[in-house]
Amino acid sequence: MPNRQHKTTVSYLKSPDRSVALGDTGLTVSSIAWGMWRFAGEDVSAARMLVEAALDAGVTLLDTADIYGPDNGEPFGAAEALLGRVFAESPALRDRMVLATKGGISMGVPYDSSATYLAEAIDASLGRLGCERIDLYHIHRPDLLTHPQEVARALDDARAAGKIVAIGVSNHTPAQTAALAAFLTVPIVSIQPEFSALATAPLFDGLFDQAMERRMAVLAWSPLGGGRLADPQDERSRTVVALFDAKAEEAGVDRSAIAYSWIMAHPARPIPIVGTQNPCRVAKIPDAYTPRWTRAEWYAVLEASLGEKLP
Fold first, then answer.
1. pLDDT tens string 83-123
2. 80 lies in a domain?
3. What is the C-alpha to C-alpha distance for residues 111 and 100, in angstroms, rounded to an integer?
4. Which conformational region is residue 154 in: left (phi greater than 0), alpha (psi within -120 to 50 degrees), or beta?
5. How many domains does the structure of the chain reveal?
6. What CATH number did the domain enclosing 140 receive?
7. Rounded Cα gap, residues 88 and 93, in angstroms
């Protein structure tokens, strides 16, 4: 009898595309974004280098917010204002990106999505950015004291005036997203939840299901678990990191690339918002497209995060 060796075929999950469409807006964005929560300082040349590094790495979706500043010891709007100074110095950079910002948080209030406030917030963002339009405008957090019809009216008015192109929401539940969508004249094209291997709620609370149903892009903030995947301090984080490090060695990339690739492997195609402010690390963002995940490997990470086997 001849020797027959059984060959096992490894089946990998589908790799993410490098770019995705934002609904029917005509906008196309990279499947990894660069975020500006920690975009700070007075050095415009250094800030420009960071923006150029992101664009050179193939990142075309840049995400900021009017509230970015106080967490860095700077004034409200500081991150937008710094980016505006970059645009003033290098106007051509603006046309190389899809610019996203957020509004609806008011210092000390904390939330205000009233029509009057949103109109003022959008104009203020445009002024700080030195732009005529915002490509993607997110309501940063839901204002429980404003009817979604009023929020929709403010956003529709801004869109009709050419101030914003597309509409998204951040930190909204699926029900809150659906309520706002019911009153808008155009679809919501993106949602922005926290999602990482250590923050997995969108897998189970209906958010990813809604995103796939409505063809909304998912922008995942804090994809490194708020730094816990970079510096694990508890058993749960260390267990996940051990799996990530094994995968990193196999793929020849660093742990961050593995964390981003795990996020992107989900069929909702979450877009990790990379927050590094180091140009060298920004340049390594494309490494996240290298790893390939089997179904068993992906679920093993999820089970490590949950601390129990799935039923």
1. 999 999 999 999 999 999 999 999 999 999 999 999 999 99
2. yes
3. 19
4. alpha
5. 1
6. 3.20.20.100
7. 10
